[in-house]
Specification:
Largest sheet: 5 strands, mixed
Distance between the termini: 79 Å
Number of helices: 5
Number of strands: 5
Helix content: 40-55%
Mean pLDDT: 83
Radius of gyration: 22 Å
Amino acid sequence: MTIWLAINSVLILVLTVALLLVTRQVGILLNQVGPVGARGSTQGPRVGENITSHVAALEAAAGAPRVPSLYVFGSESCAVCASVRKGAETLARYWSKRAAIRLVYDESPRRPLAEPAIPGLSLWYDGRLRGRLGIELVPFAVMTNASGEVLGKGIVNDTSQLESLLELLGEGAEPIRIGA
């Protein structure tokens, strides 16, 4: 019985060490890969599609200039959306000279949210915009150039995924022409 207990103890120790080594290797690989960008999705406007007609009323009401814009769609009842909003506020401080970040919520909250006092960040409420653009899930973001053409889009869950869409501006990415 004592021999069997000793053998099991040694095997458990060996397996524990092996598990720690494998976990370490996975961590090293994930660190080398870096943060993942916005998760691609078939929903929403297509890359290259112009969404100016959909957002024109909101931009006109806000007196917003035509600049590259990141539209972040969320909901008041979504906990992940609250986290993404905080990330958008942080990014707006850095990206305000190159792009506007527009938070678009479906519904007005029961208690009004404070309008962000951050340059380049605005908060809009439109219950139908998400549906018109074919976006079913939130949080979802759409990056457009100054003329309103979609450069990138995807489901976003954190700040790095939001920034991956903003970084499309630095690459000089032009959208693929659809139907041209």
